[in-house]
Amino acid sequence: MCAHLKSFASRLSLSFRVVPLAALMGMALPVLAQTTLTKPEDVGLSSAKLALIRDALKLQIDAGQIPGAIVLVARNGSVVHFEAQGVANALSGEPLQNSQIFGAGSLTKAVTSVAAMMLVDDGKLNLDDPVSKYIREFGGSRQVRVLKPGSPPAPFTPIPGPLAPSQEWGKPQYAMVPAARPITVRMLLTHTSGIQIYGVDNAFPRHEATDTLATFVPKLAGMPLEFQPGSRWAYSNSIGFEVLARIVEVVSDMNFRQFLQQRLFEPLGMHDTDFGVKRGSTARAVPFAPGLDLPIADEAMYFSGSAGLWTTVGDYSLFARMLANNGSFDGRQYLKPETVKQMASNQIGPLVMRGYPLMGMPVEGLKFGLGFLSIAIPDVAGTRLPVGSFGWDGDGTRLFWAVPEERLAIVSMAPLIGPQAAPLQRTIEAIVMSSIIRQ
User: Fold this and answer.
1) CB neighbours of 261 closer than 8 A, spacing ≥ 6?
2) Which candidate in 228, 330, 397, 436 could, as Cys together with 421 as Cys, close a disulfide (CB 3.0–4.6 Å)?
């Protein structure tokens, strides 16, 4: 994916044209027909202020920062802003539509976190259980690899396994020490397990074409850890949540796809969300980069808990609105309110998040909950969102926030990957918060 990103990014200097909403109305009917827009003033927001989102998108598109974006804002469960601007494909000029299907990237992790916490609410899973209780292969002794004094640093590699790491610094030298404690479910949810560090290659086994979570995850049991479990925070972008998804399978006695469909997607009405694109919907799907193949949902065998989902902004907003409403949506309780509060609150104590570009925000103002980034000090984090707002991002250009204090949900997606959308995201956050009508 990253190799395609580099070639795609080099073409971002193309002129991106803004497509007016009126011109898209006919093309976006599949989603717009299901998404009734509420007048912002009816839920305490200013129409005039929210209209500034359109200007902010146009500014970023005209500057060549992004080819386009879709932004949805909801309050009290009602959608008040839902608009696409720009193009889905910078090479063809295909206009972006509200109904476009995106690879969710790491937004999948938020869904996996909720799935695990639903089982906690059910009394079937305990956060402090060792992983080995559910995956017996994890019951053996583990080793932690530690860079030897004077060793070159580990070279950066975006995706463990598929890409050969650069040797520009020389080969790192490690010493092996025993793990002091077992990995727990809580550590997986908080990225404190040590099972993988973003950007550091650990020669993880590759996915075989016939692999499922049940066959792949046990292969990870003997891999050395990157730090002592529970001793630090480091983003496990492609391994830790695979283990978590497998635990959901074991506890629920369903494959991960079945669990999500039965417990989340079908009840919420997320009909475009799956591990791949439905065959009849490929015309609406945006590849991660021009020329990349689309995964087909019916052909999926491996249900990645880290980055496997494909979805629309409208679909994902249903999930975000549920979280913003303390686990409830349309009369159904998906999570206990106290569980949502726990997921959104600091679960890593004094540990500092480092080693990963967290939405372009300074880490000193952030904390991490159970699967979610949480705003701790807004001024330091560089956002107008209040303390307790929580969310996550996918590939740098898919982002959601739940703001329980204001019953707000914000979802935005742009058709590329990388950090280019961070300035736009901060602007959208500021506009939405400034739109709140204070009595």
Assistant:
1) none
2) 397
